[in-house]
Amino acid sequence: MQNIENILQFHISLAFKTLFAIEIESNQLKLTPTRKEFEGSHTFTCFQFAKQTGKAPDALGNVIGNYLKQNCSEISGFNVVKGFLNIVLTDQYFIHFLKSQAQKATFDFAPNGQKVMVEYSSPNTNKPLHLGHLRNNFLGFSMANILKSTGYEVVKANLINDRGIHICKSMLAYQKFGNNETPQTANLKGDKLVGKYYVEFDKQSKVAKSKLIENGVSEEDAEKQNPLLIEAQEMLLKWEKGDTEVVNLWKKMNSWVYDGFETTYKTIGVAFDKYYYESNTYLLGKEIVEEGIAKGVFYKKEDSSVWIDLTAEGLDHKLVLRSDGTSVYITQDMGTADLKYNEFGCNRSVYVVGNEQDYHFNVLFHILKKLNRPYANGLFHLSYGMVDLPSGKMKSREGTVVDADDLVQEMIDEAQKQTTELGKIDGFKPDEAQKLYYTLGLGALKYFLIKVDPKKRMLFNPAESIDFHGNTGPFIQYTHARVCAIMRKANELKIDYKNTQHIDLQATEREIIALLLECEKVVKQASDEYSPALIANYVYEIAKTYNSFYAAVSIFQEQNQEIVKFRVLLSETVAKYIKYCLNMLGIDAPERM
RNA sequence: GAUCCCAUAGCUCAGCUGGAUAGAGCAACGGUUUUCUAAACCGUAGGUCUAUGGUUCGAAUCCAUAUGGGAUCACCA
After folding, report:
1. A317 is a domain residue
2. Is residue A153 part of a domain?
3. Please, how many CA atoms are within 13 Å of residue A191, restricted to the half-sphere of its CB?
4. Distance from residue A314 (CA) to nucleotide B65 (C1'), in Å?
5. Rounded Cα distance, A3 and A300, in Å
6. Tens digits of per-residue pLDDT, A345-383?
7. At the N or C end, where does chain A have fewer CB atoms within 10 A?
8. What are the phi and psi torsion angles at A103 (to 5°)?
């Protein structure tokens, strides 16, 4: 069945052609949802066509409205208010649409033959995951689901930053102060144990630094002369040379961290198809530098450092290789981009990375375009804002981070508290109840982090637990569970709702179906614009409108059996849409709560 | 110094590819349950859309400038 918006646009375009001999492309005719206070579901704005048709907006609306009413069987009527043509669809069309949706096994788009990689999470192995990582993980996982739903073949990748000076800091502190403790002996998750030594390094190096300053060394020199930092740098050199002792320690501590991360990933419900490790990729990209010089994209300075001039793009001159021939970050990112493409051949590639790296990715993408990489035009940086606390930015060294595992547990506990208070788990087995707390706690957390436009920074107040009422995950989950209760009763009563006949609809019923008509467009937009938030806000709209309907009418008390059937069908379809949308966000839709 | 992002109700956010009287949730106040799940629903109140100018039939939305907040740019990662 063809999309109603296209049908309307087609007929409006035809109206312009027939009535005014004006050719307007269908997709130039913008339709907006009709405001609630007017009758209709789609609105066509006439102002912009007043001049070329020589008619006042109101008159134009009437002429087109009449044409549509006579020529388009999906339209039952129209009204014109101050130049806005509000189009009223027939109830038959709404019901027909509902029935067609009820038959669908899935709302996924047909495969489009394109392949996309979504790189997200990408943690450092020197400290545990925190709230900021959760935003990244939920956005990335959700984005992968949305792309998959719109027809892409998706590869979820995690590029783990497992080497570098920050890792050596944890290693050094462990070596000095760790007494060979292990996650088992310390009874700590592996990532937490390693993180503990990262903090310890910072603490000890501050002590060492202030001692130097006491002895008359300047602030700046004390930083450079700090013996702990020097040792860490030496350790990094040893690692690069493959020193057995250092490498073994590195392997041991990283394996602890990976165990810890896997536990967290499993809990928060994210997964990856491919892991990349910087220890394997940090040397990549040098041959691309050579290639770039040969192509004249890069230039070499006298000190043999290599640069790119991006002033024409409004950026700067940017270093791509140091004078000593060693890589910088962007060198390996070029190499990794090639590696990914050679391995998976994705024509699109999404990097879910915080907005502090906006400039970096801007440069990287410009470089890859200049190097004529076949995948260059499909690159996208899904940049997201920081999660701030009321006190400001989270800082791991200052202990002001909200730990991911702790927060998840708090959410589950809060779900348990609220569920128990409401007395909603009668008849639940203990493990079912536990699963529900988990589903609701995670649902609240994920929705909270996803509903905000990714590019905006957002505020999290630890003093106020994340809400379970209003515009929240549990509200939407609740609506789903409500419908499931309806369906259980409908099945009990053996209502043959799939076979619903044509009836007259209520305004609120039309409103719901009009929303469902929007779904495809919203999902497409979320996919094209890389914004899971659009789906979050959309599914909330559905839940809210359905709850309004639910309170306004009675389904099973209704005398007319055809109306009962219709309402059950409407309810079932709403539940399917809610579940579909929530699942794209990585949120489960419970059947009871 | 340069560049980028952000600013909407007391709070948290939608709306931003120009359209009708700027919307939700939370918090506040009032109401709704012998009926399908009240984590809900209905209502009241709450706004100089940071400011000024411009573009036009029409600006929260586009442009310019200013203010405030954040981030980035170094042979750092």
Report:
1. no
2. no
3. 20
4. 21
5. 56
6. 999 999 999 999 999 999 999 999 999 999 999 999 999
7. N
8. -80, -15
Using a 10 angstrom Cβ sphere, with 0-12 exposed, 13-18 middle and 19 or more buried, the burial of residue A412 is buried
For A260-312, the DSSP string reads HHHHHHHHHT---SEEEEHHHHTTTTHHHHHHHHHHTSEEE-TTS-EEEE-GG
Q: Under a CB-based contact definition with an 8 Å cutoff, are residues A29 and A44 in contact?
A: yes
Which pair of tokens denotes residue A284? 């990549």
Angstrom distance (rounded) from CA A292 to CA A4: 50
Q: Which of the nucleotides in strand B have any atom less than 7 Å away from a protein CB atom?
A: 3-7, 11-21, 24-27, 35-42, 57-58, 70-77
- Report the distance from CA of residue A417 to the C1' of nucleotide B1 in Å, as an integer: 55
CATH assignment of the domain containing A559: 1.10.730.10
Q: Give residue-wise pLDDT tens across range A207-256.
A: 988 888 888 888 778 888 889 999 999 999 999 999 999 999 999 999 99
Instruction: Check if residue A37 sits with its Cβ under 7 angstroms from strand B.
Output: yes
Examine the fold and report which residue of A236, A269, A302 is the final residue of a domain before the chain moves on. A269
Statement to judge: residues A42 and A172 lie in one domain: no
Strand B close residues, chain A 459-478, CB < 7 angstroms: 459, 467-472, 474-475, 478
Q: Measured between alpha carbons, how far is A483 from A46 in angstroms, rounded to an integer?
A: 40
A544 CB inside 7 Å of strand B:
yes
Token digits for A314?
Answer: 């409004």
Closest CA to A368 of A381, A355, A356: A381
ipTM of the complex: 0.95
- Spatial contact of A536 and A585, defined as CB atoms under 8 Å apart: yes
